[in-house]
Design a protein that fits this description.
This protein is α/β, with parallel strands linked by helices. It folds into two domains: about 190 residues, 3-Layer(aba) Sandwich (Rossmann fold); about 110 residues, Putative methyltransferase TM0872, insert domain (DNA polymerase, domain 1, Orthogonal Bundle). About 40% of the residues lie in helices and about 15% in strands. It has a seven-stranded mixed β-sheet, with helices on both faces. The relative contact order is 0.14. The chain binds S-adenosylmethionine.
């Protein structure tokens, strides 16, 4: 089994905001189990907690299963997408839960293992699948997607200004042979868009982020996962979401804002005609929690993390 080193991000804040009453059985879903770091802390803190853990990465599940061994009988793990959390909950007879945690994004082993193809800093296959049983790899997206769609992916998911230029270059380049490795793509980025401006994120970071989001359908997963969470949470139950880039954080913030608002009719209507009801309240209002200087010293990967919390009314 490959060693799995992942430091749970904002761990103290998760424990502060995802709390459960003591002395009665409580249930939670960890939709992004990863190495099981957050789940282990929660299972340790709450002896009456039962946990349903989900990850689309089998390597993560295998490792998390070992880490959580101390809580045998109190957790069940599922391989799949957290957007399917209701289906997994039904399978074990749960119709509501007291808490949900989504720590979205990639785990350290996913980034650090060159063979997973997530990082432009390591040469490896153009893979980027969190779920290695799925068919769509980054290579497939790059080699077979239309120029128009590639442009959309680079623009929307990478927020790349020169998306059209890069999409054109990809399509021209692949006429002379397929893209095989992460290095092929980095070379094309350098040749087409030149070096990144000082102080800005490196262009390959944005391009790789865009492809990763497309390969794993990350934004759709988040939207579906949030909607399912709302249905599964019982009154007083909390959802905590940690996101790592502005596209994800915007979705979480918008969802929490809308679902904590009563009427969402366009301004100026004399009477409400939407019938929308607030289902959530926001203990931190619209504030997000970020990592302290101390945490960043031990774990620079927490730098972009934003934690948001909502409670079901
Ligand atoms: C940042 S790590 C989670 C780390 C974990 N909280 C811990 O403390 O070890 C994110 C994990 O979520 C998984 N993941 C990301 N998106 C997912 C999705 N839509 N469905 C299921 N798992 C997902 C990834 O495979 C990865 O293992």
């Amino acid at each position: 089994m490959t060693a799995f080193h992942h430091i749970p991000v904002l761990a103290a804040d998760v424990l502060e905001h995802l709390t459960f009453p003591a002395g009665r059985k409580v249930r939670m879903i960890d939709g992004t189990l990863g190495g099981g770091g957050h789940s282990a802390l929660l299972l340790e803190k709450y002896p009456d907690l039962e946990l349903l853990g989900i990850d689309r990465d089998e390597m993560a599940l295998e490792n998390a299963g070992k880490k959580l061994g101390f809580a045998k009988g109190r957790f069940q793990l599922f391989h799949g997408e957290y957007a399917r959390m209701r289906e997994f909950a039904e399978k074990i007879g749960w119709d509501e839960v007291d808490g949900i945690l989504l720590d979205i994004g990639v785990s350290s082993p996913q980034i650090d293992l060159p063979e997973r193809g997530f990082s432009w800093r390591h040469e490896g296959p153009l893979d980027m699948r969190m779920d290695q049983s799925s068919e769509v790899t980054a290579g497939r997206v790059l080699n077979f997607t239309s120029e128009e769609e590639l442009c959309r992916i680079f623009r929307e998911y990478g927020e790349l200004r020169s998306a059209a230029k890069l999409a054109r270059a990809v399509v021209e380049k692949r006429q002379n042979g397929f893209f095989g490795t992460t290095a092929d793509l980095v070379k094309l980025c350098d040749e087409t868009l030149g070096k990144s401006a000082p102080g800005k994120l490196p262009i390959p970071t944005l391009v790789f982020q865009a492809l990763r989001i497309a390969v794993n359908r990350e934004l759709e997963q988040l939207e579906e996962g949030l909607a399912s969470s709302l249905e599964l949470l019982k009154s007083g139950g909390r959802i905590v979401v940690i996101s790592f880039h502005s596209l994800e954080d915007r979705i979480v913030k918008e969802f929490f804002r809308r679902e904590s608002t009563g009427c969402i009719c366009p301004p100026g209507l004399p009477v409400c005609c939407c019938g929308h009801k607030a289902l959530l309240e926001l203990p931190l209002r619209s504030k997000a929690v970020t990592a302290s200087k101390e945490e960043l010293k031990n774990n620079p990967r927490a730098a972009c993390a934003k934690l948001r919390v909502a409670e079901k009314l």
